[in-house]
Design goal:
- The chain has one domain: Alanine racemase (TIM Barrel).
- The protein is built from 9 helices and 8 strands.
- The chain has an 8-stranded parallel beta sheet with strand order 7-6-5-4-3-2-1-8.
- α3 links the parallel β2 and β3.
- α3 packs parallel to α4.
- The longest helix has 15 residues.
- Bound molecules: pyridoxal-5'-phosphate (PLP).
- The site of pyridoxal-5'-phosphate (PLP) has 14 residues, from β8 and α9.
């Protein structure tokens, strides 16, 4: 097993080199790994962790988050509406907001509870049938809906480029779209492509396997 702290530090210093003037947040995506495996990075002081399934995340993080209020949990996976309320209770950031039903549920949750979350709108940047995310030509309308009608705190856009293609042009498109909407934050880049993402203005990179090892 590779040393998690060593891997993290390597990525962190690489990011500082790539982006000396702009803060980039590393969301350490810990899906499939046990809390025991993740713990060294928590004890090291890292605060931002990502998961892609509500049930798994709840089992792993619920108790710990009550003790460690500094920890920030990011939902990066596809969200079913019937899991949205549980997600709102557990997570601090949602990177996969992509439909009105979810926006309605989150908005209602925020009104009824003393909690505001932070959101990224997921974009279907490659216009793929099987991918989640809002189509590019519907982003404007959806953003207006989320902010004006639902009072959600939208930080920026998020996307996962198509597999097996050079991600750069998709990152560029997403970055331009993000800037045109006036957002300051941008969620893009994973283990394999975070350097390109940072060069194209990402402020949140979601990194799993390069930190924790490969998932079985
Ligand atoms: C798993 C996952 C990541 C991390 O992927 P790695 O390739 O392990 O870095 C990032 N974003 C999302 C949405 C994921 O599901």
């Amino acid at each position: 097993m590779a040393n998690i702290i060593e891997s993290f530090n390597k990525i962190n210093s690489n990011i500082k080199k790539l982006s000396p003037n702009r803060a980039v947040n590393i969301v350490a995506v810990s899906k499939t790994f046990s809390l025991e495996h993740i713990m060294p990075l928590i004890n090291f002081g890292h605060q931002h962790f990502g998961e892609n399934k509500v049930q798994e995340a709840s089992a792993k993080w619920k108790l710990l988050k009550n003790e460690r209020k500094d920890l920030k949990l990011h939902m990066v996976g596809k969200l079913q509406s019937n899991k949205a309320k549980s997600a709102a209770e557990l997570f601090d950031y949602i990177h996969s907001l992509d439909n009105q039903k979810l926006a309605d549920i989150f908005s209602k949750f925020e009104r009824e509870n003393d909690k505001k979350l932070k959101y990224f709108i997921q974009v279907n940047i490659g216009n793929e049938i099987q991918k989640s995310g809002v189509p590019i030509n519907e982003i404007d309308g959806f953003y207006t809906y989320c902010t004006k009608e639902k009072n959600l705190n939208i930080l920026g856009l998020m996307a996962i480029p198509p597999n097996d293609q050079n991600p750069k042009k998709y990152f560029k498109t997403l970055s331009d779209l993000n800037a045109s909407l006036g957002f300051k934050e941008l969620s893009m880049g994973m283990s394999a492509d975070y350097e390109d993402a940072i060069n194209l203005n990402a402020t949140f990179v979601r990194i799993g396997s390069s930190i924790f090892g490969s998932r079985s």
